[in-house]
Amino acid sequence: MKKLLQQHRVSLFLIKALVLYLGFCTQAIAQQIVQGKVLDEKKEPLLGVNVLVKGTNIGTNTLADGSYKIEVANNSTLEFSFLGFATKQVSVNGQSILNIVLQSDNKVLDEVIVVSYGSQTKKKVLGSVQTVNNKDLKDVPGAEIGQKLQGRVAGLQINQANGRPGQGMAFRIRGAASLGSGNQPLVVVDGQPITGDLNLISSDDIESFSVLKDASASALYGSRAANGVILIVTKKAKSGSTNVSFNTYTGIQTVLDRGKPDLMNANEFATFQKGFYEDKIKYENWKYPKTGLAEIPDDYKNPENYGKGTDWYNALLRSAPITNYSLNISTGTEKVLSSNTLTYFKQEGVLVNTEMSRISFRSNNEYNPSKSLKVGFNIAPTYQMDYNTTAALDAVTGRPIIVGAEISSPLVPVVNPDGTYPKPISYGTYPLPNFYEQLNILNLKNNIFRMLGNAFVEIKILDGLKIKSSYNTDLGFTDSNVFRPSTYGFFGTPGPTIPSASHNSNNYVSWLIENMLTYNKKINSHTFDFLIGHSAQKYERNYRNINGSNFANDDIPWIVGAATTTGTTNKNAYAIESLFSRLNYDFKGKYIFSASMRRDGSSRFGLNKKYGIFPSASAGWIASEESFFPKSENFSLLKLKAGFGVTGNNNIGDYTQTTTLGSTNYVFSGALVPGLSINNLGNPDLTWETSKQLDLGLELSLFKSRISILYDYYDKRTDGMLYQISIPFSSGYSSIRYNVGEFKMWGHEFQINTKNLIGDLKWDTNLNLSFLDNKVLSLQDNTPIGGVNKYNDFNRTEVGRRIGELYGYVFDGVYMNQQEFDSQPKHATSAVGTARMKDINGDGKIDGNDRTFLGNSSPKFLFGITNTLSFRNFDFSMTMSGQTGNKIMNVNMQNSQNLDGIFNIEKDMMNRWRSPENPGNGKVPRTLSNTTELYRLGNSNWVFAGDYLTIRNISVGYTLNINSKYLLKSARIYLNANQVYVFTKYPGQNPEVNDTRDSQTTAGQDNGSYPVPRTISIGTNINF
Amino acid sequence: MKNFKYLLFTIVLIINTSCEKDFLELSPEGNLNTGNYYKNTQDFQQALVGAYVPLRDVSNIAFFMDEMRSDNSEYDYNPKDRGGLGFEQLADFLDDSQNGVISQRYLACYNGISRTNVILDKLEKINFSMTDADKNQIIGEAKALRAHYYFDLVRHFGKVPLHIHEVLDKENAYLPQSSVEEIYTQIINDFTDALDKVSLPKFPQGTGRITKGMVASELALVYMSLKQYDKSVPLLDSVTKMGYGLWANYGDAFKNENQNKMESVFEVQYKDGTDGQSSNFIYRFIPIGNTTNILGINYNNTLGGWNVPTPDLIESYEIGDKRLDASIGVIEGTINASSNFVASRIVSSVNYVPNPSVAYKYFIRKYYHPPYLLANNTKENWPVIRYSNVLLMLAESLNESGQSPVALPYLNQVRTRAGLANVTTTVQSELRDIIAKERRIELAFENSRWLDLVRTNQAIPVLTQFGIKQKAKYGYMLPSAYTITENRYIYAIPFREMTINPKLIQNNGY
């Protein structure tokens, strides 16, 4: 062995990896041809059996006559696998002919999947659980796990709300909705419910995802499970093998032209503005202040002098690279299993000067010192650097930076010939900063360190009786610094401004101790599986912010340079203590029952409601196991199941049950005197919101398991919704948290997997369809929520309707002439030629009471389809997904249809009303001062169908098989296109947009967020 | 046996990691909560301080509703930023129930009322001993504040819900409106009780707290609003004996160094600095743009252009009235290529003759007291009641109660300081007009004008006339502007309140 080591002269750290190769290397590595036929029990030849050299990627498939031929090392082992048959391993041992008979096997469904607090064979799972293996997603480039899972799971709606690197994805399981407590599912990583951002977990660390959709699957997570649960299992080493793999991809992201705003070019804008001032002169006796005469401002006198001018939207965009490197080393022996992954990811944003990068490491180790003892240590630190990509970028004083840019004057260049940045202001336009300059000088760094760690010990006390004790921590530190130099301007104050800086940071620790006892027993035909556990979790977070202003100059970007500094520190915490238990029972593997119970106590709940109990029960019948069921390969599984459970949502804020006081200081005798007043009206009865969910399911397996169908119907009632209900100002408060209201959510889900072709050319299809809907059954005093304020209040939730429907005026054209104006209902500011909204309440005048429901913001149908093909060494996959039934309100049209002559606007605004003789197209009102506001309040013009079909991902790969005498075992290269194309009638950039993300009561708004790019990448997976 | 040891070990482990009883009892460490507060006199004193704070929330915006709606001030029309439309609509009588300013004022008043209700309710249940002096002061100031907030509400919104107890849960949050009479009764009761309890004003330097002077003066104004002059006269007369006086120069009354001194009956307190107590009125009242040549501070002001003195007001000053220079200034400047006004200097408004080559804008000089140290951060207080207002109220009350000759000395005390000749007429109707005009000038930009016009039922004739002039002058003004009816004497109940509380009835005309 020493000799060998010397011979190979490999560096020490590869020793482990090398051990495995010794077997190959010490022998004379003689290659030989092996051939033969593969038959089934009836001696029928089998087509498409996978023949693989064990431990490598070298393989082939049988032909129609069942024959195969492969070149292997003479000491190899061949593995024959085929769907519906037991896998068989045969040592070559120098034989050249190997004829194989495969035994049919219904154990396909014995695949083990991860469920709450354990794992189960798929066949016996009663809850609605769907598992996705990360290896099917590995080609998809992107910072976020959600980007990879899009379109893969029935009922799991993942939308890319914006294109900010690392921050765009929003999850919803089964249309989960709450009034104010969020829609996001609980994420559990290796048994540990995490508290921070899911995306800080590198997708290269992940082995699989299990999505727990119904309450019988998720109820063991009690008061946190109402929005569903996603269980993530990270990569573990497999016993008996050592693997080194290196994966990398690099790509380029670009924003497609579809969906870019169709605004005026320089010539059109100048023409519009010329007319704007002509009308001002004609109707308002306007004079050009520069000359005091009724004449057109210089900028717009000669529109023909301008060409296309500046396209500000495109000026901020660029093609941006994305790169990922990941190295995994895993090794497994009887005593030790160890897997280590190091990943580096970097993505530049498609908006200039934006970027994120992340370095992450995970080490999963398991030791089995004796047969009855198992000890594990896992640790996963991550460091992420966000540069100009945080939410602050998306909303520069209310409007996203890209929106600020697109409405800038096209008459002004991005950069002057001398390299200075001009202000994009023409005569009479809004004081906007040069947003290209802003992006380039913005320096907003957000650095996050996060570490997940856990240790466990599992002891087998008796046969079937195990105790597991685990200790978990999730800790993080976020540090965010921004400096705004004097050249940095804002919407309305383009600069120079007084330099300012701010610092925000927080650190949190969440620890979880969990003890579980499990007992499995089989007595004759009765199988029992019992679990009881206790867990305690505490989360504590300290946070602070410091603001500095009045910097003397732009030279010191840290707050130490500020003349004025203010800052605070504070803390929040919560604690949960729980007991949980589950019993699974089956009789002869065909009658299955399961019941579970969790009791959660939480510091978040009011004194009068500290503890909650969350039970579930389910039953299943595998009819195909019955003796009367015709035994047929074409109908191998029929399973019926029903489950019911209760779950909760505890996202109610940490101290909302407490009435607190805040400082309300005042001045007496010229000096500050401290004052205190109640700032939050507490509620001692406050508690979790409860979801009761019924799930009925059916599973079928047809045609030698080539078609499998899963169907689920669910009906979920969420009540006692936690909501900051608005109470009359006259109480002295604006809101109080209450458990109010009831929602109903229901739907049908289909998951259909087919193996269309087997053999050399393999073709699999995975299709998922979800039909879903919701209804508000009750609200506090049946008072609707939202749709109150004049501005920026575009949704209303009302009893009997869907949650968060879009709300506003119904646009009804313009008053074309005096006769129309005189005879029709008017707003206080109406005039001939102004916008006419429908008089919904029929009182003869137009005001805030004439707003109405403009569309449903939730989709009614979601679908996803993935086709995977492979032929010899080639593989291909394509995923598409989409949704229908929802409406989007493009609230950015309050800017792009502004008729005050202050922004660049949509081309269509040219067709405005100018006089009874020149009334335009009847859809665009006039520009008369003080009449334009109504047209830029939320109205039906802004509402569009949100239906879309997106080609999510196309991947083509080629695997090189490399002879095992080299260090390299196999290598695969692939070409990937992500977010390939979006088919939609929605005119905005992104039909998946949802500015408010996690709030269903304000869903469906598009304020013009960070564009979502297409990514073309090339990558490779190398196994050593 | 070995396995049994493991079991034992694990059980011990579980016991060790089991939680303390108070594991689930967490309270916000960064905030006090009601459970551990209101336990001693100091807690109540601090709660009382908190009840003063909404005074600021009101005075920060009140000028839109109380001055700009009148003929004293207007706004600088800003075609580039229509975000101020809601403010303009208040001036032009185009406001509706969704106006943000009215909603802010409504909330601020009720914030103050709720804070006083908390104090008054909790004080009844204390189980520690509090001295009578402390009790009187806390109850007195709390009741005076509550009455002050309700007086603000009833004058601007008419019928409103009358909360006189702390709201602890949502069940008690939804009250219907009480009648205007019921609200006035509550105001009078609270002020009357407060008058007995609060301290006399201190001279030469007051603190800014509520005093007998403030309570008596405001209660007198309540009675004047109800036309009960027999009740307002003695109250106002008592104030004249408390030690107040007028500064020799009108402008001195507003100087920062004279805050809470002899002419100040009540003012809302501010201070500059970074502790969040500053005001910024001057930024609201000067034109938008860079403030270097106006305030000496390099700051890009986007808040300005509001409450701009009208030529109508300037013309109404008598020749030689010293108050013109102190009240109104002129900012000269140029119009740049993008038609923005660029300020260059400040000049006096007295005998100002515009130069055709120089652009100019009027501004309120009363609240202009350089030098300034910080941007958008001033120590200017907001005057609620000055002693000259007391004198004019007394003159008006006497005149209205048929004692016109007795009224003259009080009126003339104010005129003399302004450098004007004494009024000698004792004809009640003539004197009524003279006092009204005197109030307009003396109290210009102190949020009196609109309420005075309403109180004396002059709003419709005066402002309809004024509106005709405005519409002729400004091409951007809609023909429907300045349509003034009695419905417009009060504002709309905010839209939000109407949506949430089905028991409310909207004011007529909204």
TrEMBL record, chain A:
Where is the region Disordered? 991-1012
Which of UniProt's keywords are assigned here?
A: Cell outer membrane, Membrane, Receptor, TonB box, Transmembrane, Transmembrane beta strand, Transport
Domain TonB-dependent receptor plug as annotated: residue spans: 122-229
Q: Which InterPro entries match?
A: Beta-barrel_TonB, Beta-barrel_TonB_sf, CarboxyPept-like_regulatory, Plug_dom, Plug_dom_sf, TonB-dep_OMP_SusC/RagA, TonB-dep_OMP_SusC/RagA_CS, TonB-dep_rcpt-like
Q: Which compartments is it annotated to reside in?
A: Cell outer membrane
> A single Pfam family, by name?
CarbopepD_reg_2
Q: Where does it sit, as one GO cellular component term?
A: cell outer membrane
- Bias type Polar residues, positions: 999-1008
Start and end residues of each TonB-dependent receptor-like beta-barrel domain: 469-788
**Source taxon at top rank:** Bacteria
Bilayer topology: Multi-pass membrane protein
Q: Which family does it belong to?
A: Belongs to the TonB-dependent receptor family.
| Protein name per Swiss-Prot or TrEMBL | TonB-dependent receptor
Q: Which organism is it from?
A: Flavobacterium rhamnosiphilum
Automatic annotation (TrEMBL), chain B:
List keywords of the entry alphabetically.
Cell outer membrane, Membrane, Signal
Q: Name one Pfam family in it.
A: SusD_RagB
Q: Where is each SusD-like N-terminal domain found?
A: 22-223
Q: Which InterPro entries match?
A: SusD-like_N (IPR033985), SusD_RagB_dom (IPR012944), TPR-like_helical_dom_sf (IPR011990)
What SUPFAM superfamilies does the record tag this protein with? TPR-like
Please report the stretch or stretches of sequence annotated as the RagB/SusD domain: 263-510
Gene3D superfamilies on file: 1.25.40.390
> Per the record, what is one GO cellular component?
cell outer membrane
Q: Where in or outside the cell is it found?
A: Cell outer membrane
Main localisation = membrane
Q: Which domain of life is it from?
A: Bacteria
Q: Which family does it belong to?
A: Belongs to the SusD family.
Would you tell me the protein name for this molecule? Answer: RagB/SusD family nutrient uptake outer membrane protein
Species this chain originates from: Flavobacterium rhamnosiphilum
